[in-house]
């Protein structure tokens, strides 16, 4: 299914000027020489965030534990507070793991669906959302059900996922925003059905965290949200902020445990190594020595996004997405991402029926326009540092390649 229709041209939001978001070229010097429309691939890290990281590395590298404890509050409590701010959730319900894959694996092996139970996934979803459940099913014989696009469609919808859920469903694990098509799942609608069936809803929020602000209804609908911090969150890989519901925390017994499981605060010489005393909150997911640099970057990036104004980010990104889609359609492209604001976030994916996406992708790269090639689609993903200028640059390259310039 494509959305090459008037829906895109009904969009009323105009593209917001970058200066309205308090973002400058000083924060992202690369934008002076390139049109970077690839935050779904890897986000640009603001200079202020880079400077925080450099300060930490210099501190521990030159002063050892003196430097470490100078940054301890920021490293531990600052990262947790930033996760709480990101999700709009209580401190008790948040943690910072090292990756989405790790967090999902912890829940998958704890829940460990048995033979006779099933897990619902999306067929072309991120491996972070699918592999853990496939591996568990190898051991237990649980059924794995994949929601796939219906005939004539390129996207898996909320309804497609819901159609596979029944009384034997143990868990549903999906990406909130699909990494290829950009379709955004309705978490509130899906979560209600999952809860009614007594199952868990686990969500990879990597392509929504940082641009979508979660509502209380959405938080109430899910059992875990996990996101990498190196895309839309403008940080570095190695920090994965989590939200975990009370329903999971009440019973969650982690598979991975270690030096920070019983008492996550140094020094560790007062811990009884003969017994495990689990924290009474989401810190159960933080079992070992933290990857410090990504935590420092994550804390700084959340501050940066908050200073910009997190409520302004999604309208800005969606406005630029609408402009990209409309201009692509006028050049003959088929846009797979839905035009509805409620069904998309920051990704716009499209292809030209009679022209190679790979050829267009390579032409864009040669002209310093950053996008991604995903399956048969060109994936555009603007962020706060982009403006209409970047959209025009990308379309001009395509027009010239197609002989329409």
Short structural summary:
This protein has 405 residues and is an alpha/beta fold. It is built from 13 helices and 13 strands.
Essential attributes:
single chain; 405 residues; alpha/beta; Aspartate Aminotransferase, domain 1; Aspartate Aminotransferase, domain 2; 2 domains; seven-stranded mixed β-sheet; globular
Radius of gyration, in angstroms, nearest whole number: 22 Å
Count of helix runs: 13
* Strand elements, count: 13
CATH superfamily of the largest domain: Type I PLP-dependent aspartate aminotransferase-like (Major domain)
**Helix and strand run:** EHHHEHEHEHEHEHEEHHHEEHEEEH
The largest sheet has its strands arranged as 2-8-7-6-5-3-4
State the shape: globular
The CATH topology of the largest domain comes to: Aspartate Aminotransferase, domain 2
CATH class of the largest domain: Alpha Beta
Q: Kindly state the mean pLDDT as a whole number? A: 93
Bin the helical content.
25-40%
How many domains comprise the coordinates? 2
CATH architecture of the largest domain: 3-Layer(aba) Sandwich
The fraction of residues assigned to DSSP E strands is 5-15%
Structural class: alpha/beta
Tell me about the largest β-sheet. 7 strands, mixed
Distance between the termini: 29 Å
Low-pLDDT residue intervals, each spanning 5 or more residues: none
